[in-house]
Amino acid sequence: MNRRHFLHMSSGLVTAALTGTILPDTAQAAVSTPWTPQMKPPMGNGEEFIQWAQKNRGESAEYLRKRWERYQAVVSNKDVLDERNKTAFLMAPREHFVLPRNLPRAYEHAFLDIGYGVTISGPHIVSRMTTSIDVQPGDKILEIGTGSGYQSAYLSYLTDQVFTIEIIQPLAERTRGIYDQLIGEGYSEFKAIQSRHADGYYGWEEAGPFDKIIVTCGIDHIPPPLLKQLKVGGIMVIPVGPPGAQRVLKVVKEEGSDGVVRATRSDIYGGRIVPFVPFTKLEGGTIKGTHNQ
Ligand SMILES: C[S@@+](CC[C@H](N)C(=O)[O-])C[C@H]1O[C@@H](n2cnc3c(N)ncnc32)[C@H](O)[C@@H]1O
């Protein structure tokens, strides 16, 4: 098993939770060819993709094969539509963002437990939600709900400005540790990700306004601070509805010819209910309930 799986920081050393091995945090780069937006993995043939990624990214054939199989499923399900999102899916190493016990399931359709009572969203939802916000190079993106870090890792193949907020402090720190370890191993694309521990309901005002916002926890309304921090012409994707029964809405903030700013909504799953982890609330440094009204 790969020693890079699921790492956490401990007093200047990185402890591999999987093996118990202690590694210096200046681990040797394993990725031989750094990411650039011009990089194009082979998309027409699984064996060619696996060989390419083994050679250029130092990744394991076992996970590359599963990534390729899931890639074919997300393409045939129309969760990814354009070449840039297809590339992002093929590049993002999901195996580094799941718990060690879930490694064999890293590329399954389902969401998976990541500890602290929350989950890593399934690969189909991540790719459909990301495709729906049409990320352009240089776009400033805000994610609410860092969780495992996979969603922001995927975004880093689409733009070099990703901001992500997580409300569970030890999870925010654990995920930051994973990014930093992977950056040390040559995944320089994750330098695009700025992360913080906070209540994402209030957005990240100093970093905004944002071209796109992606919310990965469910709430019964659109948080006004997030809508305010979205640029005119910007797009937000957000699961909205009662607990455990949200619909995933694409919200476009537009200015009409009358100068009035409006938010138009559409459902990226055509009305299907998709349950999400709740959008919780921070009060005096402690998580208390949710932001539902
Ligand atoms: C479905 S999970 C994680 C999905 C994540 N994007 C990923 O790729 O793993 C949703 C996350 O939202 C976080 N969350 C819930 N309420 C939040 C809030 N008010 N601010 C920031 N994060 C929040 C949860 O703690 C959880 O980690």
What report would you give on this structure?
The chain is an alpha/beta fold. The chain has one domain (7-290): Vaccinia Virus protein VP39 (Rossmann fold). 26% of the residues lie in helices and 25% in strands. It has 7 helices and 14 strands. The chain has helices at residues 46-57, 61-76, 83-91, 123-132, 150-155, 169-184, 224-229, and strands spanning 7-10, 13-16, 22-24, 112-113, 119-120, 140-144, 161-166, 193-197, 210-215, 230-240, 247-255, 261-267, 280-283, 286-290. A 7-stranded mixed sheet has the order 8-7-6-9-10-11-12. A 3-stranded antiparallel sheet has the order 1-2-3. The protein has a two-stranded antiparallel ribbon with strand order 4-5. The radius of gyration is 19 Å and the shape is globular. It starts with 6 loop residues before the first strand and ends with a strand. Mean pLDDT is 91; it is low at 1-27. Bound molecules: S-adenosylmethionine (SAM). S-adenosylmethionine (SAM) is lined by residues 118-121, 144-145, 147-148, 150-151, 165-168, 171, 199-201, 216-217, 276-277, 279-280.
